[in-house]
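Field guide to reading this record: the first block holds the primary sequence, the second block holds the structure written as discrete tokens, and the final block holds curator observations. Each block starts with its own label. This record concerns Fatty acid cis/trans isomerase, catalogued under organism Arsukibacterium indicum.

BLOCK 1 — SEQUENCE
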Amino acid sequence: MKFSIIILLFGCLGFVALSSFKLDLNYGKASATNRAASSDATAAQAELYQELAKPIIERRCVVCHACYDAPCQLKMSSAEGISRGANPQTVYDGARVTAATPQRLFVDASGPAEWRKRGFHPVLNERRQTAEANIKGSLLAQMLLLKQQHPLPSAKRLDDSFDLSLNRAQQCTTIEKFDNYASKQPLAGMPYGLPGLAEDEHQTLINWLASGAAMPEAVNLPETALRAVAQLEQFLNADTMKMQLSARYIYEHLFASHLYFPALAEPGQQPQFYKLMRSATAPGQPVNVIASRRPFDDPKVNRVYYRLVPVVSSIVHKTHQPYAINDELLAKWQQWFVNADYQVTSLPGYQPEIAANPLTAFAQLPVNARYRFMLERAEHTIMGYIKGPVCRGQVALNVINDHFWVYFVDPDMLNSVQLEKFYQSQQANLRLPAEDESTTLPTHWLDFAKRQGNFLRARNQFLANAVDPQRYLTPATIWDGDGTNLNASLTVFRHFDNATVIKGLIGAPPKTAWVIDYVLLERIHYLLVAGFDVHGNFGHQLMTRLYMDFLRMEGESNFLAFLPPAQRRTELADWYQNSAPELSRFLDEDINPFNQPSGISFNTDNQKAELYQLFGQHLEQVQPAEHQLSNSKLADSSMQLLQQLAGLTGLPATTLPEVTMIMIEPVDGSAPELFTLIRNSAHFNVNSLFAEEDNRDPANDNMTLVHGLLGSYPDAFWHLQETDIGKLVAAAQQISNEQDYAGLLDEFGVRRTNPNFWTFSDNINALFQQRNPVSGGWLDYNRLENR
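BLOCK 2 — STRUCTURE
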């Protein structure tokens, strides 16, 4: 047996070696410098890429190859990503013992030659630059040709030979190994598990590849944009210590964002976006990016400058966090950070025990300024841990419920001097796991649990002494957005391993809710955004997940504090059914001891529902209308039928996907209406790290229906005429097994095998981006079901 395996191994190696020898013989040795030598694009090549090839790449390739979990790390959303190529190393690896080397585009390396040293292999030809070699030596070209030669089978559902699971084994072949790959997997051409390209699209890409695959991506900013960039850089890079500390704080909260200037954007058009980067060079000089794992790591330079770099990648919804820079916002920054009466006597260092804890690093900045900064764009602040690099976050996201509402404590509720003294006294209790950096063992878990308990007890004592419960524990405690800010309340939807956050209170009243104050909001950001390293080892990721348990329970207990003490315990017991003994002790000893009476006089037995109603009335003036079903222009009778989908519970809900995007063609021939149907999976508790299915409570699964598209990862597409809404709803209500759902898809679904899949895909992406030119982006198809 061993002898046979050895023979087979040598056979495979010989096959690969022969293939490589033939390529070298016919087209020369591969070298990244071959493409660099011919990188200057002619006008014809530039037009071929920008006008013809790039739009096809976005519509057919970027929808699967954009996030960190793009197959083989092949990110095709930019010229840099395509030139970088592919790498078999898995980014999402919860079992690695030591932290992996970051491989971030535009940060950790520059140009194909540097990426080759980091283990990336080319997908474009890097041998002699002839038309023949550019096809024969291009992995991308060969993958496209393989698909044309072996199209997708015509069955409705792909058989098990197609592994479409997220955790499937990586098949990261090289051009040298391609013949062996194609012989074993003839149906694995690109796009994988989806219909092939139309003949004209295929030929356009082949022509582009044959001509050298030039990808000119230079951004020529108009004078107005250059002035806006210079003005913001001037503000952030003022020499005073007060501004240096403030700019560091701003950067550490916006480093993952896409900044833009609304005043410069054309109406209805996607604006130019920018990344805020740390640079070793001052404004006016070329940007010299400081490549650190975290935004607060030691920059190893005497002075850090904060610079804006234009975003050249295609905008992908999963990683897109737009942040508007306008005169009103800059005036507030001036008020909070510059004009405020405080002194900065020294700048904090970058040692992990200082920099990883914002309560320590920014102790000299007024708490009110910090909190106001995050509240002003609260959706964006919370969005940070839902978007960004966490493209595959089931272990991180099983720490939250599938549907909950978020409220915020009014920043003017407590005396800021008292509050700042209290927070300063709690710095040791509010340490965060990122202090241990990216390679660690979860040995400090009990220390963090003890500190969290100490903090909660100290906080309860502080509140008991510092505030009047008749004023504090009432709706007046909740920030009302100052009467105009729509960020005053948020809804979070979890979709198993990804999530969505939107402004407003969306859907039916949920099982749980959070009330967030400054110190909780800050720790959420530094735990899950600024301090989280997607390349970290299992210990770092495990500690982050376990610590988030504390923060969730803290937000929940803040909400429960508005209920009478007895009701708090009843609700908490319902939220944490079947919990482990350690959790039960923590709930009893550290969460429950807050016994101050509520400042609300309740009139019903259902006090939680009454509290939701009171909070809703308090926030009525700042509820956005964007995703309300009333925005639909379908007939009232059609909407009454469609809304019945939101009433599905139990088995029909459990059978439906996490996120279904629906396109409905109106009777009057007007533009299609878009809706999203979201499944909210119920749990007995969300405190268990593993075996999530053991905590599922499917009998209480329910649905939320919204107008417009929510989420970045559609699991299913439905397409129907308005006249068929009743038929669709009836089919959904009658689902009792997988066959019933398959029957619904037969009539209304747009499966990944549908011959018209790409036409539908083009339409829904175009509508999404046209109707959301700032927040929209390309959807990601890595979670499309095969049902």
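BLOCK 3 — OBSERVATIONS
Residues 387-516+528-624 form one domain.
The chain is about 40% helix and 10% strand.
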